[in-house]
Amino acid sequence: MLRALYDRVLLLAAHRHAGRWLALISFAESSIFPIPPDAMLLPMCLARPERAWRYAALCTLASVLGGIAGYALGYFLFEAVAQPVLAAYGHAQALESFRQWFERWGAAVILIKGLTPIPYKIVTIAAGAAAFDPWIFLLASIVTRGARFFLIAALLRRFGAPVRDFVEKRLTLVTSVAALGIIGGFAILKLL
Fold first, then answer.
1. How many helical (H) and strand (E) elements, i.e. helices and strands, does the chain have?
2. CA–CA separation, 1 vs 123, rounded Å?
3. How many CA atoms lie within 13 A of 83 on its CB side?
């Protein structure tokens, strides 16, 4: 079933309203939907490289707005809605771990998790349920989601189709390197 859904999302990348679908999937993936927007972003950037930045910006904006919705689910409707969503993804007990991570690491949790293929919806829901500072959550979400989508767009604009296979196979590596760069930058700024 998940593969069929993924294939359907991939087909939407060629739809005449692909931009709208990209925004909808980016929004939904941040709170409830299982397929990441990368499934559409990759082929759309390859097909129209001159629009790669627009697509990355659209993905970022919609993903952050979806993250706010996920945060609200966790904050206001954890037991009624968010807990069943987390349970459906096999993370029913994740809240306590995230609470501890947020207390210890703060925004770094969002920065790291928002770049990696770990479902971002888990981070957004858990941040709301843990009552993590909403402004820091918003800022970290903009940075991390923007970095992820603009990195993909930049790689596809620069290297084209060959990088798509590399990114699809090694998305964790690509985004982990970007996460280390962002965290390193914040650490350097904190030391200055």
1. 11, 0
2. 24
3. 8
Condensed to tens digits (0 to 9), the pLDDT of residues 46-86 reads 878 888 999 999 999 999 999 999 999 889 987 787 677 76
Q: Secondary structure of 48-103 in the HEC alphabet?
A: CHHHHHHHHHHHHHHHHHHHHHHHHHHHHCHHHHHHHHHHHCCCCCHHHHHHHHHH
143/183 Cα distance (integer angstroms): 11
Model's pTM, two decimal places? Answer: 0.74
Please give the structure tokens belonging to residue 97. 């771990």
CA angle at 64 for the pair 15 and 175, rounded to the nearest 5°? 85
Question: Within 10 Å of residue 189's Cβ, how many Cβ atoms?
Answer: 8
Q: Which two tokens stand for residue 163?
A: 């990088």
